[in-house]
Specification:
Structural class: mainly beta
Distance between the termini: 21 Å
Order of helices and strands: HEEEEEHHHEEEEEEEEEEE
Number of helices: 4
Radius of gyration: 22 Å
Strand content: over 45%
Shape: globular
Helix content: under 10%
Number of strands: 16
Strand order of the largest sheet: 1-2-3-4-5-6-7-8-9-10-11-12-13-14-15-16
Length: 358
């Protein structure tokens, strides 16, 4: 049986049309596009070890996903798009990466389903990288964590909700400005009635972005606010697991150069506040790209002390485009982690890889 039968995508699209009030007919035939990506990475790292540990120097990672997209346009100008992307290589119990429907009108876009919120969609990659992307947290996976600091999706609100079920709205662009809101009943994969006593709920984020240009280049600005309601007191102890956060990002291109920076402040109800920032630069000429970036993340370890966990990382990357959708790359990194008792853990290494998109 085919992984993405055309009948499934067609059925999803027709189901979406059925919920639209009034009689509408598809002006265009439903088109189906299949795609995917394959990424293979190899890393060699030297890192500090605790007594009794024997951490191997070499690691391998891969990311293989397949996708299907169906589109149609109605005779009233509304377009409908359905999209599904799945992990082709097992990721524990996770199979579906994204699955959602877009309804696009002159008044904006409504997205319903399993997808990161509008903040992640607006900001995208916070800093330019020659080879890796925001999805490729290879260093964080390859180096043993010594802190509780979140490295994956560290600069967008996707870190709180992942691809949990939700709905979002994004306005059409007006004078370069787009605004959007997203709502997730729960930040977990749960479906059905949500019992607010058992976990945090009602995740909401608001984001605005602006894109403009100047003589010889472009620039972009974005920022947002996030709120996650805590679980409500029940018969047991009160758990302070609500979260507020805000972030901002900026970037510019000029000639073959691209610059970017981002900042995130996380204010959980438990008081263990966190601050993260990053900046990076990229230069590209023909099929070659080279980039350098630096990030810092720090988190309060206790309400009883001012001590903070901290992660610092510097990285240099290079990539060469072999052909449409195919690139190879290499990178080097150095990272320092300071744990809750103030011990410093150093690590450094190199990575290489091949990426194919189709």
């Amino acid at each position: 049986m085919a992984l993405f039968p055309k009948q499934i995508v067609r059925g999803v699209l027709l189901g979406a049309v059925a919920f639209y009030p009034g009689t509408v007919l598809a002006a265009d035939a439903i088109t189906l596009t299949l795609g995917g990506r394959i990424k293979e990475f190899f890393t060699v790292a030297d890192q500090d070890q605790a007594p009794g540990e024997d951490l191997g120097a070499a690691s391998m990672f891969n990311d293989v996903r397949l996708s299907a997209e169906g589109k149609t346009a109605l005779d009233n100008g509304i377009s409908i798009r359905s999209y599904i992307r799945v992990f082709a290589v097992g990721r524990e119990n996770v199979d579906v990466d994204e699955a959602y429907i877009d309804v696009v009108t002159t008044f904006g876009r409504v997205r319903i389903g399993e997808k990161a919120g509008i903040n992640a969609s607006t900001i995208g990659d916070p800093i330019p990288q020659a080879f890796l992307t925001v999805d490729d947290e290879i260093i964080g996976d390859g180096v043993k964590a010594r802190t509780a600091i979140t490295l994956r999706d560290a600069f967008t609100f996707k870190r709180f909700t992942g691809n949990a079920l939700g709905v979002s709205y994004q306005s059409p662009e007006l004078f370069g400005i787009k605004v959007g809101v997203a709502y997730h009943p729960t930040p977990t994969p749960a479906v059905g009635p949500i019992d607010g006593r058992l976990g945090p709920h009602n995740a909401f984020d608001f984001t605005a972005g602006y894109e403009g240009d100047f003589d010889g280049g472009t620039y972009r600005l974005a920022g947002g606010y996030f709120h996650l309601a805590p679980r409500t007191p029940g018969l047991g102890p009160i758990v302070r697991d609500g979260v507020e956060a805000w972030n901002m990002s900026a970037g510019a291109t000029y000639g073959g150069w691209e610059l970017g920076a981002a900042y995130m402040r996380v204010l959980p109800q438990n008081g263990l506040n966190e601050e993260d920032w990053t900046l990076g630069a990229l230069y590209g000429i023909g099929p070659f790209q080279i980039s350098a970036d630096y990030r810092v993340a720090s988190r309060r370890v206790s309400l009883l002390t001012t001590a903070r966990e901290r992660v610092d990382r510097a990285m240099l990357q290079g990539a060469y485009k072999l052909g449409p959708g195919i690139s190879v790359g290499v990178g080097g990194f150095y990272a320092t982690q300071r744990d809750v008792v103030g011990t410093s853990w150093d690590s450094g290494g190199v990575l290489s890889g091949l990426k194919i998109g189709f």
